[in-house]
Amino acid sequence: MRTGDTPPSLARLLRDFGRIGCLGFGGPPAHVAMLRELVVQRRGWIGGDDFEHGLAATNVLPGPGSTQMAIWCAWRVRGLPGALVGGAAFIVPGLLVILALAALFLGAPPAWVRGVGAGAGAVVAAVAVQAGLSLLPSSWARTPARGRWIAYLLAGAAATALLGPWLIVVLLACGGAELAWQRGGRGPRAPRALHLDAWPPLLLAAAAVAASGGLLALCWTAFKVGALSYGGGFVTIPLMQGDAVDRHHWMTDAEFLNAVALGQATPGPVTHTVAVVGYAVDGLGGALLASLVAFLPSFTFVLLGGARFERLRTLPSARAFLDGAGPAAIGAILGSAIPLAAGLTEWWQLAVLAAGAAWLLLRRGVVAALLGAGAVGALIALAGGPLPS
């Protein structure tokens, strides 16, 4: 808030941030644009330069960036109460919608509903490619070492296709490798959180949790989504797929494709997909648990570190780590198209995938592609066509 301005009421924050939560289709770029229009242009609560600084800092952090930006904006306006109210208003509307859809799609849906899911799910691989390609230019322009950038990108893509649930190890390793390279044995020691020697015990503990299965494993999956994902919301998809489909068999390929499609077609952050995974594990309770674990780190990062965002934005060690983990995450997004496409079982889904890819290549909307593909799937189901089992 600017000096002398009267802070808005919590009810005002609930209405304004809730509006974005209800209408925020289109992913992080749309969310950031709506937030800027609200807090900078329309209400004047935050200066333009401060908004850009906050955006740069949240881009350094792991986890869902647009969610963290919404929480940070509300925190700047009204402190702790504002962060809790504004953040919840941004998250909850889309969460309620996706929970209702999860109950419909993961229960015993009629054939036409299964057709909608099969059609929309068929386009998800093309959406992944579009998301990855959209991140390439800015990441390529930022990097000072393009040879290593290519290596990190390929490592992330290969890890998604080959390692599944252990993709997070590769993301951390790429970030640590670039940090070590840029330090080159010189300068001040990096923060402990970024040291390679801190990660092995944490990863071993995580492996033990993941191996236990059940709700503990679900919590680990949700924690990876909320606290260890770099490169935007879509990188959470390969992180979840390895656990949900390959490792723990909570969902079939078709169900996971449905989950991703729902996360893309509903308002709010893509991270909401984790709620569908949680629903597959333990119904409504699992969905709420997964959502809580996934979104809690975003609140924690802002509430504990919001006052230090200016320093974080310029911290060399944080930028160096992201220089390695960022391209690896983009590679993971692009590589996720392979297992996503491999999950398609009907010939007509491949045709829908090709049509959706062409649509997105023309820079048409993702939501429109998903809705159109879902309509095609519904028509095929009503006509008695084959559906994924």
Structural features, described:
- The protein is mainly α.
- The protein has two domains: 10-93, no CATH class; 94-382, no CATH class.
- The chain has helices at residues 10-23, 28-42, 48-60, 65-105, 111-122, 124-142, 146-162, 167-183, 199-212, 214-227, 236-247, 253-265, 273-305, 309-314, 316-335, 337-342, 347-361, 366-382.
- The longest helix is centred in the N-terminal third of the chain and has 41 residues, at 65-105.
- The N and C termini lie far apart (54 Å).
- The model is unreliable at 185-196 (pLDDT under 50).
Which keywords apply here?
2 domains, about 75% helix, about 400 residues, mainly alpha
Helix content: over 70%
Structural class: mainly alpha
Number of DSSP helical runs: 18
Oligomeric composition of the shown chains: single chain
The poorly predicted ranges are: 185-196
Report the sheet with the most strands, covering strand number, pairing sense and barrel closure: none
